[in-house]
Amino acid sequence: MRKIYIFDTTLRDGEQSPGVNLNMQEKVEIALQLEKLAVDRIEAGFPAASPGDLAGVNAVARAVKNATIVGLSRSREQDIDAAREALKDAQDPCLHLFLATSPIHRKHKLRMEKHQVLETAEAAIRYAKKYFDKIEFSPEDAGRTELDFLCEVTEMAIRAGATVVNIPDTVGYMTPSEFGNIFKTLKENVKGIERIQLSAHCHDDLGMATANALAAILNGADQIEGTINGIGERAGNTALEEVALALETRADFFQAKTSLKLSEIARTSRLVSKLTGMVVPGNKAIVGANAFAHESGIHQDGVLKEKTTYEIISPETIGLKESKLVLGKHSGRHAFREKLVDLGYELSEEQVNLAFAKFKDLADKKKNVSDEDIRAMIEEKLVETPEVFALETIHVSYGNRSVPNAAVRIRTNDRGTVEEKAEGNGSIDAIYKAIDQATKEEVELEDYSIKSVTQGKDALGEVHVVLRQGDYSAQGRGVSTDILEASARAYVDALNRLIEKRKSPARSKRDNVTLI
Ligand code: KIV
Ligand code: ZN
Fold first, then answer.
1. pLDDT of residue 384
2. Backbone dihedral angles phi then psi of residue 268, each to the nearest 5 degrees
């Protein structure tokens, strides 16, 4: 079977999703999980975009040993130099250069003629070739580029030294047959095409990203670019888990496979969702909560008789295991440790002790503690943010005929423990006003979402918030059996992250760099 290379751009195109802003630790956390998933290439960021992006790419380059680390760069020397700096510690670095080629982009964005596009891209590739063995070149908006010009651009890129030519459907405009035809045409007409790899990069504006990526594979693409859970600019990118499972499940048809460790998919999806705050819809293919749920009686009856009647993929394939060990109040440390191993966590002794104490608290409030509860509890503090504020207690008074009020006690780094009370339009408004007074931070609440981690009245609630303060924004998560407490925790978590960003210039917000 033909091997299809997987190029993950969760940390670059995925991070361009509105509202997503990962800090350096979070990027490394995701990159290490992508390494476990065994992706071939990780695009870690766009180093010239901001000092924070450069530092993030560098941190990933230092942490990851078993994947090529890629940095994005416009076709200009300053960007290439920033990427050199960011990738200097990578074991296997790759530069990803791009320049738009479509008539719309040439006319309105670049204001360049075709020959200028060719010259600019060629000069950039030749300059980069002095420093990088591996260079990927992307003719941005290739989908809407004249096919003969795209062949000319690809031939130039190969001559100049590119090792991969990536074909982006930047605006998600293509249909599968049109997109497949681009690959077929390049394969048949471009001199030297056998010396490089061809890659596909699709966006999902018309819901065809996965279909287009698969059409590219059928027509000769060697590499697929995409993100976990399909996050990315606007409607997102190709969801890599969908491509991987399509190739696995329909190997008879595609005759191609990836090297992904499929059993890491569920864990990777959860981590990306948690750290980006982008909730995976229940009906999302492969990783949605309902992807393996059978609701109708006829389906349930069929599955009970023989799974394959309605199940084309088994949940175990992507790492969803039915747990045999249910934990509760009487479970001891040994059973808890076994469960952690079973769920794939590798924790230090100190972390196990902390997690066990949290588990005991939870088991006091919930009869049965499910795998999802344990994951939510452990992953809540997977990435530590230095705490400026810590929520100690919260008290809320609510009645449908009275004004809700809240009292909070917050431990601060510099002013000891502070207590404040406030009234609000609702309980959460009152809590957030009291926290604002206690922390003396002025922030805007940009986004608030809540979901339950498991089923049942005693389910854990998970709250996600995005806070903004001037140019800075940060997200925060909170988990508790009580949604008001989860809301307060998420808010305080986001405040801590905001302050961390404000303090560290290397993590300043992305400059307003246009993709030109
Ligand atoms: O969608 C796109 O065109 C891109 C390029 C930078 C490859 O993300
Ligand atoms: Zn893209």
1. 60
2. -65, -45
